[in-house]
Sequence to fold (64 residues):
Amino acid sequence: VATGRKISNKAEQRWGFIVPHPDPYHEFPIMSAGGAYVFGNNPDGTLNANDIGLNNKGGVHGMQ
Fold:
């Protein structure tokens, strides 16, 4: 909480948001909001375990 308060700046509308790290359970919603995903889909709708989308542009942006 102290770190969140320290990095917040009301004048700049910048707010600290702290989650446990590394903790994919809490981090994934932030990453997926930017477009990250765990597994892609095959044309038939099944999961494609070879298409891992955690390190895509949106996922990286969400974590910055």
